[in-house]
Amino acid sequence: MNINQPFQYILKLCLLTTIINGLTVNIVAAEVQTFGQAGRHGVDGRPGRNGISAPDQKIRASQQLQTIDLSGTDGEAGESATSGEHASECQQPKKAANVCGAEGGNGGNGGDGGDGGKGGNVTLYFESLSQLKNVVLRNGGGRAGSGGNGGQAGDGCDCTQPRRVVNYCTWALMAQPLNVANATWTEVEQKLFRCSGDAFYDEKENRPQPRPADANYRYGWKYIGLSEQKTFTCENGESGKQGRKGADGQAGSYGEVWLVQGDDIPKEQTSYSDRVSLLTDKTIPLLKNNWLEKTGLRSLLGTGSDVRDTYSLLQTVQGSFKVAWQAAKRPQELGDPEMKAAIAESGQLQFDIPGTLEYKLTKSQNQTVVAIAGGIHPDRLRRFKFKGLDRFRDPRNFTLLDEGTLLGELKAVKFTIILYQNDSKVSEISYPFTPQPPYPQGLSVWGNLYKVNLGDRFDSWLQTGQPIQYEIRIEQITRSGATYTSGMKINLIVDKVTPSPEIQYYSPIDANSQLQNQL
Fold it and tell me: Do 387 and 498 belong to one domain?
């Protein structure tokens, strides 16, 4: 509503009861006029400002008494809102039909309270626990600001006459010809007009204005009588809504406290990696800082301290390692692989050493020695090839070639032959063996050649014209215990074996390279 207009009507629909001639009651949807000026809404309160958080600080305890206040400041209270205004100019119209009073204004919402500031974080250095009693520390959070009050609701316009009855009388418009002698009056039409219902009064005071005479007729109104009564209502204007109280802020939290015995926090070196040739005969130190969660801080500090009772105490663990090269071959001849060492929270060293190296871990005082005794070059692993079928049309006999020639330098080898038909696994044979004979039945070793005779193990599935697939999985276990897997898939048709069958080689990622705990 435009508040610059002193009076304004607004139309809306409501259900009214209309009584016609006191006999028939009809409930109809009628236009309703709103009288009065609606009250303006209240203004929301401003939110309170948050408290100021204290800065972080480093403190060094000594024999002198220190009082350190790093408390957060309080949050401000939210501002209260203003109330909604009452509706104004509430004179009920006398001639309007159905009316409603203007509404009161809504109360404004209170402002939210500000959050308390956080206490400052403290790193406290000390030499002995007794020095902590000389430190009075306060790093609590600020109090929360309360929310502002909501504004009161404004009242709407009230009716002075909630119900009134209006009478309607029928008048007949009469016409008399002007050019006819002794002409009679003739009724032209009938109309309803508001009236009191008192014939004498209405004849005198409520007579309608006659139609202007024309060249042929004169006109006048003839009172017929009370014909209809209508009941009109007035509804009080609704009050506005009560404003919402602002939310209280959040209290500020205590700052953290870290205790460090000593002058500083040592620099961490939690892991180290390099090629073995660059690690040989070097002492590599490792250091890790552990922050231990403790309780009882209030009993450690001076009287009058206001702190959270939990704190973090620095614990430093350290160790070192060195690589001793004791292998007959140079690092480069073994691929010069990279190794990594890391220190755990317990102070124990963990190593990630390639499985191609032979090594031994020994601990002397606070140092671990990684002695490399031998190994193989990684490029010599996973070098198996399908050499061919020994008998041209017999899929039960074939030869594998190890181009790396590694059997004598490994701990063990395992062949697994899996038979598939229509992409489904139907059978499997394994041949585990070591470098020294005897070898499993069906396997012959000639240098770097491996002859496999499946015998009759697969005969029930090797039907003439049947498509099959062999998967040959090769696991090479080094002397350090790491397993390197490779393999191949060969597609054949029984009794239609070709000299060069379709072969697909693969080398899965080795899953044995991982951190190993120091022994």
Answer: yes
Per the CB < 8 A criterion, the answer to whether 472 and 454 are in contact is: no
Are 236 and 36 within 8 A, CB to CB?
A: no
Q: Are residues 385 and 353 in the same domain?
A: no
Which secondary-structure segment (H or E) carries 402? Answer: strand 394-402
3-state SS assignment for residue 201: helix
Range of the domain at 194: 168-226
Residue 126 maps to a domain: no
| pLDDT tens-digit map of 21-78 | 333 333 334 578 999 999 999 999 999 999 999 999 999 999 999 999 999 999 999 9
Regarding whether 433 and 318 lie in a shared domain, the answer is no
Q: What is the pTM of this model?
A: 0.69
CATH number of the domain enclosing 433 = 2.60.40
Number of domains the chain is built from: 3
- Alpha-carbon distance of 26 to 36, in angstroms, equals 28
- Residue 282, CB half-sphere, CA atoms under 13 Å: how many? 12
Q: What is the DSSP string of 203-220?
A: HHHSPPPPPPP-SSEEEE
- Cα of first residue to Cα of last residue in the chain, in angstroms, is 86
Residue found under tokens 């600080």: 57
Asked whether 240 and 107 are in contact (CB, 8 A), the reply is yes
Q: Give the span between the Cα atoms of 233 and 15, in whole angstroms.
A: 10
The answer to whether 169 touches 338, Cβ cutoff 8 Å, is no
Could you tell me if 386 and 502 lie in one domain? yes
